[in-house]
Amino acid sequence: MASFGDISVPYQNDLRVLMKYISTLVNLGYETIAINRTVSPDVKGKGGQDKIPGPPNLTSLPGLEDLKKTCPKLKLLSRITVIIEDQQQVRFIPGETVQSYDIVSVQPTNEKLFQQISQAVECDVISFDMTSRMPFYIKHPQVNLAIERGVSFEILYAPAIRDESLRKHTITNALELIRVCKGRNVVMSSGAEQTIELRGPYDIINLGLLFGLKPDQSKATVSRNVRSIIYHAEARNKTVKGAVSLEKMPVPASSVKRGHENVEQSKESDLKSKKFKV
Amino acid sequence: MVRLKSRYLLMEIRFEDGLVDQSLSSSTVYHDILRSVENTYGDYGFGCIKMSFKVKYVNPFTGVVFVKCSRDYYRMLWHAVTFLKEVNGRQCSMNTLHLAGTINSCQRFLVKHNKKQLRKMLAQCKTPAEKGKISKMLKQLPSAKSMEDEKKKRQGDLALKHLTG
């Protein structure tokens, strides 16, 4: 079974607060955690690309070492959510800063942009603002296109806990989304603004039933689908066209060049030491 | 005659400030959960849950709560508990640890869970005094084997009673 994961913990400027979120999630039983940054890049003027902040450094968080002792499998990732309100903002997504994040997610605000994103834009997750009335209908063809490309859809559950009216909207929109995509490629993540809005994985699985998922699909939203997002992101980031990846491996001691005669041999072993993954 | 079947939920209350609430009692938890059921499922949900819903045990120091509910409607209760935001007038969240058909099985899980928690605490200890305290506690706990033995003994006693009585 894939481990449980939450891919939408909002980034906090105060690292201690961020650490509080992470330790709460670890206590609840999550092992894969993605720290999310939401941006809406400015189209006007030059240097919109530069205004997007780079991925946060997640290795030097205070107290992370202690936490790794209790949970050795803990995996921290960085994630960016680009809110797209304008056609021109789409060009930021293939940019270097956005692609340097571990997971890239896109939030379209109208139907045309949604179609464009589901067809061609390189991303891992498509999220919607589910806290208000959806400005457009989610349609089968676009959703199927996205699912074929391995892109997932996201439902945030924290707004449903936060407030009653937000809960109504979240349930409506989630039911609609799940009806259209038939429960495939859906992930549920927190998007919490306080640590008490976080819930354990089994509570979330139960909540999925409320959103119209079947029990097995509901379980996949916090485990298997999260893992597939991470694999999708790795295929996008670290491979050439999703087919070949190069990895440097330490050169074995026996192949160290000893003399003129061994040059050819060492070349050969150098080639061998590069591992090809298909 | 078919027995009325129920589900037991083992839950943990986590307050926002990380403190414990000594005044936490089963009646306050009962009323807060019931109100949450009414908020999420309305009058129908309230009616479904009301008869079978019971808070069996509350530990204000560890925040552990045992809840009983009819098997047909326990999901409603569970949803309502997920949406619960306040207990005893303080912001909190409830995390479900275990779901079982008997309260005994819940208790067995709790013993295991507490052991795990103690081991985690042991790993995070910084001073030797703390470490000694927790390792002493761990030693005092009954081992899995002794619990199993006790269970077998109890079953044997019951069988004997049955035969003689």
UniProtKB/TrEMBL annotation, chain A:
GO CC annotations, alphabetized: nucleolar ribonuclease P complex
Positions of the UniProt region annotated as Disordered: 251-278
Molecular-function annotations in GO: RNA binding
Domain of life: Eukaryota
Keyword set, alphabetical order: tRNA processing
Subcellular location: Nucleus
Record-linked Pfam families: RNase_P_p30
UniProt-listed GO biological process terms: tRNA processing
Biased composition (Basic and acidic residues): 258-278
Family: Belongs to the eukaryotic/archaeal RNase P protein component 3 family.
Protein name: Ribonuclease P subunit p30
Organism: Paramuricea clavata (Red gorgonian)
Lineage: Eukaryota, Metazoa, Cnidaria, Anthozoa, Octocorallia
TrEMBL record, chain B:
Any one Gene Ontology BP term: rRNA processing
Entry keyword Nucleus: yes
Molecular-function GO term, any one: ribonuclease P RNA binding
Compartment(s): Nucleus, Nucleolus
UniProt biased composition (Basic and acidic residues): 146-165
Superkingdom to which the source organism belongs: Eukaryota
Region (Disordered): 142-165
Principal subcellular localization: nucleus
UniProtKB keywords: Nucleus, rRNA processing, tRNA processing
One Pfam family it belongs to: RNase_P_Rpp14
PANTHER family reported in the protein's UniProt record: POP5 HOMOLOG, RIBONUCLEASE P_MRP SUBUNIT (PTHR48414:SF1)
Task of the protein: Component of ribonuclease P, a protein complex that generates mature tRNA molecules by cleaving their 5'-ends.
Protein name (Swiss-Prot/TrEMBL): Ribonuclease P/MRP protein subunit POP5
Annotated source species: Paramuricea clavata
Lineage, top ranks: Eukaryota, Metazoa, Cnidaria, Anthozoa, Octocorallia
